[in-house]
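We modelled the chain as a single entity of 325 amino acids. Its sequence is:
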Amino acid sequence: MTNNKNIDIPDSLLNKPLEKLKQENKRLKFANKLLEDKLSAALDNTGLYVWEQHIPTGNLKIYGQTFGSMCGYKLNELEATVKSWENNLHPDDKEPVLASLMNHLSGKSLSYEAVYRMVHKDGSHRWISDRGRVIELDAQQKPLRMMGTHIDVTAEKQYELSLTEHANLDPLTNLLNKKALKQAFKNLVASIYYQGGAFLFIDLDDFKKINDDFGHQIGDRVLSSVAQKLKIYSSRTTSISRFGGDEFGILCDSSDKDSLMQFSQTLLNAFSKPIIIENESFNIGLSIGVCYFTERDEHFDNVFDHADQAMYRVKKNGKNSIEFW
């Protein structure tokens, strides 16, 4: 029979496995640190950063970058967690970004991808392109770890937005062009606050004579001055546009005829004073055609044409006045 009494084992034998484990642990830590250094060196100056998330705790680690530094925060100024990241998401982007993340964590999508804004410490925002996927599951096959990359794409996004803005603006006056006005019309009738609206078609009276007598350079300066006046006398809820030549339009979020007549008369009064350019005085009259609408299924082209027709009635009846379609 085997004797079950305690057997004395020399300390030297007991310590050998423990020493081996310590050495192995030290070796693995060194190897891990070496890999992290290599990763940081490979990504250095690329703007691309690798992140890792421990999903149950929400802890985040970013390789080669201090957490929050992209948004102007210093070391330990922000807790490196998903909650901190979420709190710095731009309010307008938070819902779709978190939905994309949850879709991946729940298995509805193969990866997580999003382009969003992070609020900077100084109040500005940075555009981030972010992507990642789950790389490890726990014993219950639930997501345990996730890894991905993010990159600051603010410069590229600003350039993209500037191209979009220029595509929607009249290059001479920086007012909306007809394409952008049409979109503003769609946004208006789709708004939950929609209660009708109106479109003012404005044509400058006898503008051709200015171009003929003074040249197109002076004519362009007159048009720019007209645009500035329209901005000054219009409310912030209106959308002002130039279609080309001497034709302008104003989209209003009111269909009240009295208010529209008062606004139109204010514009006529504002232009009763001449525009002065290089000591030359230019008297500008406005022929204004107004079409108001109340239905959500109203079409922009119909409203535009009706206001145009009303404007031409003004031209026939002596100019510098207002007609409603």
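As a brief sanity check on the tokenised model: The chain has two domains: 22-158, 169-324. The domain at 169-324 is CATH 3.30.70.270 (Alpha-Beta Plaits).
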